[in-house]
Every structure is written in C-alpha cells, then in structure tokens.
Design goal:
Belongs to the metallo-dependent hydrolases superfamily. Adenosine and AMP deaminases family. Adenine deaminase type 2 subfamily. The chain has 328 residues and is of the alpha/beta class. The protein contains 17 helices and 8 strands. The structure holds adenine and zinc ion.
Length: 328
C-alpha cells in the first residue's frame, strides 16, 4: 500500500473520467460531441491552462442531479483510497454549475452524500473548499458566497481558480475578507502561469493560508524567503504542470528546488482524470524523473498532513501513520 497522505489540491470536477462522463451523459439524455471514450481521451491534450479549462467546463454539462455529484465524488474517493489518501480537502466550482442552471443545493447535496460516508467507507476524512472563478467578476463571487451561507457547516474554506493571467488576486480582496468574517479559511491558486507578484497579493491581500501551485515563487528570492520563514504550504501539482506546459518536462520540475529552499511543499493531483494520474502517480513521477529518494517522498507525505486543515488529534495520528509506514 502507498504511504498515507493528504490530498489538498483536488478539483472534484477534474476527477470526471471519460467512462463516467459517458455514463452520466446517457443517464441525462445528453449527446457528447465525441464518438466514444477513446475519442474523448484523445481530446486530453493541452497547450496551456485555458486549453484544459475549455474541455473541463464543457464536460461538466453531464453533471445535473445530486446523484451525478455523488457518483463523481464516490469514484474519486475509491481511487484516492487505493493511492494512500487518508484525508482530502476537495475544491468545487459552484459558479460553473449555477451558471448553467444547476443550483448550489443540488451540488452540495450530491457532494456531501459521498463525503459524509467517506471516513467509514474509505478511511478518508474530508473537507470542502468553495472556489470562486477568477475570470468572473468579484460581485459574482460575493453573490456565490452569500448563496453558500446556509451550507457553511459543510464548507471549510474558500479558494480561487480558473484562468489566472490578467486576473490578479487583488480583485477578490473584499470577497475573501467577507469569507473570513463568516468563519471560513482561505487558500488561493497563484503562481501557476501567473507571476510571483500574484503570490504576494494572495498572501498580503487575500490572507491565503496556503498557496495552490505557487511554482513561480522561484522567480523571486524575497518571496522564497517569506514562504520559508512562514512555512506557508504550497500545494504543488507536478503532472498538471507538465500537462499544461507550465513546466516543459518532469525532469525539470521545480519541486526539488522549492524543497531545497526550505518551503513546506505538498504533492497533489489537481485534475487527475485529465492529467494522467492520481496523487500517488505524482509521487511516482517525482521518483522516476527527478530521482526523489525515500527521505524526500516521506517528507512530502508528512508535509501533506502538517498543511491540512485537520483537527490536532487526527493530524497527530496520521503523521504517526506516516512515520510507521515502511518506505513510500
Ligand atoms: N490547474 C487549475 N488551475 C486553475 N484553475 C483550475 N480549475 C481546475 N483546475 C485548475
Ligand atoms: Zn488547481
């Protein structure tokens, strides 16, 4: 069994495997513009973040009913358990659903039906992170936050995702402040394709407690010093970065350099059905292409629990499981 780990950067909509997309399309009477599973899988070839997002939003159309969201989440949890995941903090994109007529109650009812039984069925504790779409206006994010008010007992944090360049974090300063006032924690995608200055803004303006991706921090030595001093976790997604060409080859991925700079780095799968692997597959890629050794891989597993929004007792117990696990 792979080493126990937490997954902290996972878009539930990005776990939609082609087979399930066709099953849900059939169930909902939708015709996908692909002849079969293989034709759809062939479309999984991307030149940048936007080329992926186009397909990601298109395929979401098959998600219509609570049961669809439950089946999607259940399928992810089963795969994650087999990869050693013991805790998952899961992003979802409400605006991508409400904008096409699927209401927030439907999404949350479906997701939570699977999450509520996850610990008993799969040994995975969970948290839900509501993401605002960066390429939509701030007032829409604020409306989404208010719509989420009746569901706050199911939501741990807010984040922000979708297209990055041209959408600096400053745009969401008020929305994140309002989320904090509602008792939510804050994380933010920054520095995936966008510049290091977006990471500074995510820290200083959004008060993000974790940076999702953050690989462009390496362009800015003062930022590296800050991230190392504060031990602000980065949720790095190696296979995603290579598939979206933020990094040209796994052998050149900056994750080892970020660890060497003293940052609290974690490994995650982002959108595993689109990027060729789940979280342990990312560990495997780091070992194969970058030669990360047992000590580094074990440190990454431990970091994932350190960086998690977990209650202290479960955090301690899961770190003890890492320490007791032989190898990685
Ligand atoms: N890697 C990513 N970056 C930004 N937005 C996303 N939405 C889903 N995956 C994403
Ligand atoms: Zn992401």
């Amino acid at each position: 069994m792979p080493i126990p780990k937490a997954e902290l950067h996972l878009h539930i909509e990005g776990t939609l495997e082609p087979e399930l997309a066709f099953t849900l399309a059939d169930r909902n009477g939708i015709t996908l513009p692909y002849s079969d599973v293989d034709a759809l899988r062939q479309a999984y070839s991307f030149t940048d973040l936007q080329s992926f997002l186009n397909l990601y939003y298109e395929l979401m159309d098959v998600l219509r009913t609570p049961r669809d969201f439950t089946d999607l989440t259940e399928a992810y949890l089963a795969r994650a358990a087999a990869q050693g995941v013991r805790h998952a903090e899961i992003f979802f994109d409400p605006q991508a659903h409400t904008s096409r007529g699927v209401d927030l109650d439907t999404v949350i009812e479906g997701l939570t039906a699977a999450l509520d039984t996850s610990l008993a069925r799969h040994g995975i504790s969970t948290a839900l992170i509501l993401c605002f779409l960066r390429d939509r206006p701030a007032h829409e994010a604020m409306d989404t936050l208010h719509q989420a008010r009746p569901h706050l007992d199911h939501i741990s944090a807010v984040g922000r995702d979708s297209a990055e360049v041209g959408h600096p974090p400053a745009k969401f300063t008020e929305v994140f402040a309002a989320a904090r006032d509602m008792g939510l924690r804050c994380v933010a995608h920054a520095g995936e394709e966008g510049p290091a200055s977006y990471i500074w803004q995510a820290l200083d303006l959004l008060k993000a407690e974790r940076i999702d991706h953050g690989i462009r921090a390496l362009d800015d030595p003062a930022l590296l010093t800050r991230l190392a001093a504060d031990q602000t976790p980065l949720t790095v997604c190696p296979l995603s970065n290579v598939r979206l060409r933020a990094v040209d080859h796994m052998a050149h991925h900056p994750l080892p350099a970020l660890m060497d700079a003293g940052l609290l780095v974690t490994v995650n799968s982002d959108d595993p059905s689109y990027f060729g692997g789940y979280v342990h597959d990312n560990f495997q890629a780091l070992h194969t292409h970058l030669g990360l050794d047992t000590e580094h891989l074990r440190r990454l597993a431990r970091n994932s629990f350190t960086a998690a929004f977990l209650d202290p007792d479960r955090k301690r117990a899961l770190i003890a499981q890492v320490d007791a696990h032989p190898g990685w």
